[in-house]
Amino acid sequence: MNGRRGSKGPGSTVKNVVIVLEYDGSAFHGFQAQRRGGELPTVQETVEAAIGELTGEKVRVVAAGRTDAGVHAVGQVIQFATCSSIPVERWPAALNSRLPPAIRAWRALQAPASFHVRYDAARKLYRYRFYYSPIEAALSRHYAVAVWPPLDTERMAQAALRFEGEHDLRAFCGAGRRPRSWRRRIFRCRLLPDPPLAAHTGDFFGDRTDLVVLGATGREDTWSGPGWSFWVEAEGFLYHQVRTMVGTLWEIGRGERSPVSLDHLLTGVPRAEAGPTAPARGLYLMAVAYPREALWPQPGVSSGPPNSHLETVDR
Fold it and tell me: Which helix (H) or strand (E) is 154 found in, with range?
């Protein structure tokens, strides 16, 4: 490790470094390292290799959420133990100098040895993006899902509220998984509009009748049509849970099932009774929240607003 910028010196102590990551999931075969190599690397393998280049250490990176292949992250939280002399505030810049453009480190902090990014997480926030178009847009094909014909979003928004509360969610868990508990508490579910890519193009070109404007005109029946995001905040998630929630809401939006039918699905019925699993590419891990005392139990560290008991670790 001699000669490396982050090499450890005499008397180095082990630090528990926490990093907030953003990544383009289409470039990776999920977060978790795989026993057998695939065509694409994993986020974990890529980040561990970058840390190794910086420090000469062989580290193991742990994540708050083990996202699947194709799933993106805006606020993934990772941790690793290191004896490196790199100051904690320099870790994002140092990592970004070794990471591919599809992964960016945005924030770093040093946590106590007792802190664990997965087990100490109090809440996670996911977002699922889709839009209405009969043709899948070239610029969105890895980052949102085209749905056609348009859905009844009012029915879907009403149905989404029924997810809130504590439920047995085995109907929304991917087949073959057996968690310790099927019960999860969902704090908020919302279906919210997203402005389309061409939202403001109609403000340009004026009223020129001598011009024929071709391209993204902002009309709702083009690829730039209205987009929607399904947001869900919960204390934890089952495998494929959000994507199956979305697939079920799509069935409600098509009139294939009623919003009230969700009540039955939240009682622990088999997976086959819920809707299909939506494609991975529309899903984003947005942020993870932790009890403040888990991150900063030390005296003298700024704790923010006196009534805040959660620290949102995102960008």
Answer: helix 153-160
In 3D space, the residue among 215, 221, 218 whose CA is nearest the CA of residue 195 turns out to be: 218
What token pair was written down for 22? 């953003």
Both tokens of 216, joined, read 């993204």
Query: Topology of domain 15-120+290-313, per CATH?
Result: Alpha-Beta Plaits (3.30.70)
Chain mean position to CA 211:
43
Give residue-wise pLDDT tens across range 105-160.
999 999 999 999 999 999 999 999 999 989 888 888 999 999 999 999 999 999 99
Helix (H) and strand (E) counts for the chain? 6, 11
Nearest to 6 by CA among 81, 60, 45, 57: 57
Would you state the structure tokens that stand for residue 107, as one six-digit string? 């924030």
Q: For position 73, what pLDDT does the model report?
A: 97
Tell me the CATH class for 124-278. alpha beta
Contact 33, 41 (CB under 8 A): no
Residues taking part in catalysis: 68
- Six-digit token string for 288: 């993870």
The CATH 3.30.70.660 domain(s) of the chain lie at 124-278
Burial 205-224 (b: 16+ CB within 10 A, else e): eeeeeeeeeeebebeeebbb
Of the candidates 249, 244, 231, the residue with the CA atom closest to the CA atom of residue 158: 249
pLDDT at position 222 is 42
Tell me if 196 sits within 8 A of 224, measured CB to CB.
Answer: yes
Which own/partner pairs from 133-141 qualify as long-range (CB within 8 Å, at least 24 positions apart)?
133/222, 133/223, 133/225, 135/223, 137/197, 137/223, 137/224, 139/197, 140/197, 140/223, 141/281
Q: Tens digit of pLDDT for each residue in 212-233?
A: 665 655 544 444 457 999 999 9
Q: Which residue has the tokens 């099927």?
A: 182
Residues of the chain with CATH 3.30.70.580: 15-120+290-313
